[in-house]
Here is the input.
Amino acid sequence: MKMRRTQVAVVGAGPLGLELAVALKQAGIDYTQIEQGPIGNTMLWWAPQTRWFSSPERISIAGVPLITIAQEKATREEYLAYLRAIVTQFDLQIETYTRVLNIQKTRGRFVLTLQRTINGTPLGEPEPLIAEKIVLTTGGTEHPNRLNVPGEDLPHVSHYLSEPHLYFGQRVLVVGGRNSAVEAALRCHRVGAQVTFSYRGSHVDAKDIKYWLYPEFSSLVKSAQIIGCFNTVVKNIAPRHATLAHGDGSTFDVPADFVLLMTGYEADMSLLKMAGVNLVGEQQSPQFDEATMQTNVPGVFVAGTAIAGTQRRYRIFLENCHVHVPRIVAALKGRRSKARARSYDRPES
Here is the structure.
């Protein structure tokens, strides 16, 4: 069987992966782009009509303005439509629904084993792809942070808010203290759920929450329309209730027909490990040269939020990652980019 070859294998087709693909195409660099799901895959677990934290100008890519209908922050649907338009406008060829099963370096080149996969089920036989270079743009929120408590895998427990309508008339326990938890609590309340909110901290910090959500959330908790259980952690989940514990160890039960564990997400570093990249620190951040985005493995580059590993407090997000694209393109051409990153301390304008 004749093996396919490419100069650059780009793994990931989220916003930054697409922005890189446009730049590679414009620079005349041969590349193959691979994505394990559809484009913008991670956004599929956002609830319908969820809005970005960041303003459109910060999350636009490839020099194409992002125009929203109401001149507000983009919704999930608006941004996915925008990404589809980018792919169409620049005629990007992407091998979607294709997983990278393995990466091996041999004779100075990389052999990627690819498998077409739908909903976790392999289709056909694995195929090799030989690449001179690899760019991993795999994001930083692939898997949920698990609590590892009894009952976490019961069918009424989820780490994602999908469709709020599902919770109409139900007793819902929301666990967490950041944007995803606050938004889940509000949206479930708005559709008629009885919401209890559990957070290990003493309060939800306003500066960490989308500014258009916090006032309403705070008011509903204060008026007990959302029941706030602060300084608590989940100890056990049963079919109709969950057991929470205070800091002193005392426990109590709260009714829960559904439980939403909105406790954050972690990066999937498996491909970086396969490629031999050093992962350092508690967050398991890849080792790389900031000027070129090349890792400790020659020929392997990293871009986007994957550079931060698993972030506990987000400091790396889409808008301060755009600079990775010119740095990588310059490095592939044997030059050094003079592009400078914009400084943002949080994903909001």
The two ends are 52 Å apart (CA to CA).
